[in-house]
Amino acid sequence: MASGDTMMPHHGGSVSSLTSACTTGSSTSTSSIHVHRKALTHMTFFWGHTTEVLFKGWPGSSSGMYALALIFVFVLAVVVEWFNYCSIIKPGTNKVAAGFFRTGMHAVRTGLSYMVMLAVMSFNGGIFLAAVGGHAVGFSLFGSKVFNKSEKKPDLPPINLKC
């Protein structure tokens, strides 16, 4: 590294540019590498409304948008639980059509589950609590038979977690 180049630590600094000279035989070429300031990503849980959840720049530093992100993750987790226990396909439906419909439902359930997981990977404590709370409320509404006395079998098989 040349004497004019500086390296800053990960917490707040950035590298303006690094210049390296490569000498191959008699020709010399100079290339410049620009390293842009990288956003801080937390690798441990933290509390605060300034974070990024699922999309770059969202919710940002706005408290209102953070509240919307909490509600969004909560509702997403409730919807995942609904998919786990819903019974939409009527008995006697064409088996091929029912199979394709179940496959589509499984794909949507899996995609939504991954979105909840990715939101939790923001390592924001509020988002984590919203996801867990959404799953708990969804399970109590659709899976625990407290509010739903129906004994219908769900369309999708349960997610089996074998350790």
Automatic annotation (TrEMBL):
Q: Which GO terms describe its cellular component?
A: plasma membrane
Q: Which InterPro entries match?
A: Cop_transporter
Source organism, top-level taxon: Eukaryota
What is the protein's membrane topology class?
Multi-pass membrane protein
Question: Mind telling me which residue stretches traverse the membrane in this protein?
Answer: 65-85, 114-142
Localization of this protein: Membrane
Q: Show the GO MF annotations.
A: copper ion transmembrane transporter activity
Q: What is its main location?
A: membrane
Going by the UniProt record, its keywords in alphabetical order are: Copper, Copper transport, Ion transport, Membrane, Transmembrane, Transmembrane helix, Transport
Give the family from UniProt: Belongs to the copper transporter (Ctr) (TC 1.A.56) family. SLC31A subfamily.
List the PANTHER family hit by this protein, alphabetically. Answer: COPPER TRANSPORTER 4, SOLUTE CARRIER FAMILY 31 COPPER TRANSPORTERS
Q: What is this protein called?
A: Copper transport protein
What organism does this protein naturally occur in? Ricinus communis (Castor bean)
